Task: structure prediction
Amino acid sequence: MPPPDSRKDQATERSARAAAGMLGWWRLQIRTAAGGSAVRAALSAQAQGPAVQRTRTALTLSRVRIIAALFAALTAAWIPIDLWAFGWQLGAGLAAARLGAGLAFAMLAAAERPPTPAAAQRALGALFVVPMIFFPVANAMLAWSGVDVYHDINWAAAVYGHGPFVLAAGLALFPLTAIESAVAVATIVACAILSEALQRDVRQIALAAGDLWLLTLVAVPAALAALSQTGFIAALTERSARDRLTRLLTREFSLELLEVQFRIAERDDAPLTVIFVDLDRFKAVNDRFGHETGDRVLAGAAAALLATFRRQEVVVRWGGEEFLIVLPNTDEAGARAAIARLAQHGLGLRPDGMPQTASIGLAERRREGAADWGRLIEIADRRMYMAKQAGRNRWIDSENAAAEFIPATVPMAPAA
Result:
């Protein structure tokens, strides 16, 4: 059995790998609309982060439910038309097939599913599989009865010949990746080929080729529309993930990240520290120099935070002039060292040439015994206010003793 210290080191290493992997996943997510990464998000689900996948999943499941309910009603409603157009013998067979398809659609609409990408893919696949089975079966019945669904003057028969076209057009209703679209188009074309084979003989191969070409002309634009939906979701995710002024993560987008980070740290009994930063006397900058100047000060402070903290550490604009830094697998001593690096780097200059200071509170999960990430942030926030009450330009940790943040300096000229 390995010694206790060795087991502790192994657990810490596993926690670090898990946190780094999860953070890498999130960093990919917040870059999905930047340049070529938006293209990658549309090409493959593997290139998407949790926010994009969650939105795609919700859209897919809701649309599957609506369309399945609509198809269940329309499929059954067509039965009287089949009976009128084809007579009782053939119409009864088609009615039985329609009842089976309608029941499958109804079950698909009523089914409760977990909001996961895998469940959404299965639901979407089932939505397309039902008509892919129904139309070849119906075409086989019509062919055995001598009905040509492609050239018969009976308009009710022509409906069955257009089934694959309906499926192809339906692709545009869902946010799909390139891989998913290619698989769907190939499957729909295969369904059409099967239907054609049941209706035509070898002498009519040219007519079949023409129908398949028209089907392709419908399917390709529909697939491109599905791809554009995925790209649009990625673009909206980027806009909601990043604060427009500072380019930091927004508070809303970071909440799930905080939840996941806390669960990982709790599972592995690993340290997790949050640092709450509030810029000192920022309102005075806005009041005296205007909001445009205040925006430049905010952007400069955000740039300093990004330059100081490491890639595996996440910087969030929590609101106004407040920032939150999440330090996975970092204890209180490591957080103190990070604050020292930030003090050395600085937060930029105020319009009067003085260094921009901040009041800072920090809290570490294990030391505080925090039950959830909300409690951890609450402690860091309270200590930030304590630092402000102690005279500003201070930071406070679990010892509750205010320490100077940026050493006092003589005024400097504002940066160009």
